[in-house]
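Input.
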Amino acid sequence: MELVTWNTQWCKGIDGVVSAARIVDGAHELADFDVLCLQEISQHYPSLTGDAPDDQPAELAQLLPGFEFVFGPSVDERPAGSPGRQRFGNLIASRLPILQVQHITLPSPVAEAESHPWMPRQCTMCTLMADWGPVRVMTTHLEYHSEPQRLAQAHSLREWHQALCRQSANRPPTPAGQVATPYQPKPYTSDTVLCGDFNSEPESPPYQVLTSGDGSHPLRDAWLLAHPGEPHPPTFRLFDDTFGPTPVGVDFCFLSESLAPRLTGIVVDTNTQSSDHQPVCITLQ
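Output.
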């Protein structure tokens, strides 16, 4: 199972060109992926996409026949005077069967003294059927402008992961006669991939929350599992210094302890300029 995660900047490259096809081609150059997790996907925001198609989930579905698609907008709005809804968020495309879909709204606590741009944040979660059984794939994009909000969102993701693992270990019974109802058995699993753009460097407080060994069901950083002692490759600000002069690593894949032994490789494409972030690929066997 090969999984690619990429913050696409609404499919906008360093050259300013918006192209979903270029994103798909770049991901395919990295791997013959089974699962593609994308952040910053736009739907009906013409100011972002310009002359390119403005329904990126629909465009991506055409570019990836045979894949199932789940779009999880963190922003879903219809401003006054707009002809339709506008959405922006995370997307999972999978050629593995999608057994269950869930969407998590992440917290955005606001301090009175804070004044910064803001948008809602969420995590899109799909349970897929891999060769060895169900795997929960969670993809997200944490707040950029506020460290307290990032920290709260990291806590929420860790709590959700732990709760879902506990649920898998203590599976609720199915009531009699409820086999073909919403109470029917679920694809419980502790095998988890949490990936995306965390807007947090290694060793930052949100990163520490996510990788803390405290409590049950820890999450492990796939890069450090495969390359212990090696620094993370930069995934942001390699070719564009708009948001800072120094390249940093902020895009990660975290694995549940149950899934960590299946990791056989992780690769970061540090050459592509099809987005202002670099894609990351993990291989699980």
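The first strand starts at residue 2 and ends at 7.
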